[in-house]
Amino acid sequence: MPPRRRRLAPSLLSADFADLAGAIREAEAGGAEAFHLDVMDGHFVPNLSFGPALVKAVRARTRLPLDVHLMIDRPARYVRAFAEAGGDTLVFHLETSDPPGEVIAAVKAAGRAVGAAIRPETPFDAVRPLLPRLDELLVMSVHPGFSGQRFLPEALPKLDAARAAAAELGAPLEIAIDGGIDATTAGPAARAGATFFVCGNSVYGAGDVGENLRRLRAAVDGGAE
Length: 225
Fold this sequence. Notes:
Elements: E1 7-10, H1 20-30, E2 35-40, H2 52-59, E3 66-71, H3 79-85, E4 89-93, H4 100-109, E5 113-118, E6 136-140, H5 156-169, E7 174-178, H6 186-192, E8 196-199, H7 201-204, H8 209-224
Parallel strand pairs: 1-8, 2-3, 3-4, 4-5, 5-6, 6-7, 7-8
Helix pairs in contact: 1-8, 2-3, 6-8
């Protein structure tokens, strides 16, 4: 099986919401290959963000894939709404109240790719049985809920375990990493097996968005060699 292309996915939670269309254009011009949208309910995580209406607005402004990260306690209830809003991959948390099989079935029934995310304290073995049914595994390298946190290196062995498990299964699994990804941490994450890099403050925090993405691309490509 040929290796997946390693993709950069700016997190729009870190963008300027007063000029979201501009933030999308800048990232596209700089080489972004997807966008990541963090949906928070104030319950599963101690923060609120946005809902299907914003996903729909983003969908109207880009053709790039939308990776919708559902940091909400009852994701199965909202699958249809986010699918209809334009999400391409819907990622739920393994630690939520809904049975994982129920969420996976709902996403597949909606005609979307499905991902499962695991918090830093959740071991990889907890999600291993689900891998044959997943399109994406999202490894959190920060505690979910707020941007700007420090990268937790204990995420790296999970990436390596996911890569090995996917190879053993022969599954075309997207292995995503989310949290503290910058020009320093992207290389080790790529070396450990990540194929999808969620990048927030390192893209939108300061400086030129295009140049920030070019630095990240160089770090990812260097780490993968």
